[in-house]
Design a protein that fits this description.
The protein has 79 residues and is an alpha/beta fold. It has 3 helices and 3 strands, in the order E-H-E-H-E-H. Strand 1, helix 1 and strand 2 form a beta-alpha-beta unit.
Length: 79
Amino acid sequence: MPDQLLLIVNPAAGMGRGETIKDEIARMYERYHWHTDICCTRGGGDAARFALEGTADHDLVMCVGGDGTLSETLGGLTR
């Protein structure tokens, strides 16, 4: 079974680059036999919820966004 990556993305990050870079990241990890689940935030609290709910099923959690996305993701991981 491949390793599991949870990619939490703020699609508006970097003037919209978050939306386009998520697929590049997934392809890169796929080359090394990782399965990537992508969760895109739509509002406050989404990143924390995705991180909290996804930790049991994933080997690695990564986030793409700014300070708020990182802070929420870390908050979700430490609950």
